[in-house]
UniProtKB/TrEMBL annotation:
Organism: Cytobacillus oceanisediminis
Name used for this protein in its record: Helicase
Keywords assigned by UniProt, alphabetized: ATP-binding, Helicase, Hydrolase, Nucleotide-binding
GO molecular function: helicase activity
Superkingdom of origin: Bacteria
């Protein structure tokens, strides 16, 4: 089944992103060149031997939507979100998309930087890249998200367990087949 916008009940954003062609060290250097900051989790993901980059450039068509767009007005777990997206013909993204998307999406709107953030909640204005996890270890980051705070672009890693319920307004990036 191919993803069709009519199956989603609200606005979706599609992007075509070129991925690959850089080594891991070149990718990290490019993030630094663009003054993109990373948290400890993002650094841990990039440093892991299981995080690989493609030697060859390729294009991905991405779809940004919310948990609510996927039909979860009360939120859903990661597994529920990924299963529903798959039913709609969307796929998980390769983990290497995170840094490349961060480098392409330089005009991300500002997120709220206040301290009213609830623990175990996606930050305001963030976009989570839906991807396979590298490790089932509870302490290992599960993937990347993008954020802009006080004009600074971030590539951040996150960690949630299988019980975590994402809010209906949390944004995700999936790939189109």
């Amino acid at each position: 089944m191919r993803f069709e916008n009519e199956k989603i009940h609200s606005k979706v954003i599609t992007r075509k992103i070129e991925v690959g062609g850089l080594t891991k060290s070149q990718l990290i250097q490019k993030l630094q060149q663009y003054s993109i900051l990373m948290n400890e989790y993002a650094e841990k993901l990039l440093a892991d031997d299981k995080f690989t980059t493609s030697d060859t450039k390729y294009n991905l068509q991405t779809v940004e939507l919310t948990a609510g767009n996927l039909g979860f007005p009360d939120g859903a777990t990661t597994d529920q979100l990924f299963k529903k997206a798959n039913e709609l013909g969307l796929e998980l993204c390769p983990l290497e998309l995170g840094p490349y998307l961060r480098l392409e999406y330089l005009d991300q709107p500002e997120g709220y930087s206040g301290n009213s953030l609830q623990r175990n909640e996606a930050p305001s204005g963030s976009i989570t890249i839906a991807s396979e996890t590298l490790s089932e270890d509870a302490d290992f980051p599960k993937g990347f998200y993008l954020r802009r705070i006080n004009g600074v672009l971030w590539l951040r890693g996150y960690n949630v367990d299988y019980l975590h319920v994402w809010n209906p307004n949390d944004h995700f990036i999936f790939c189109q087949t």
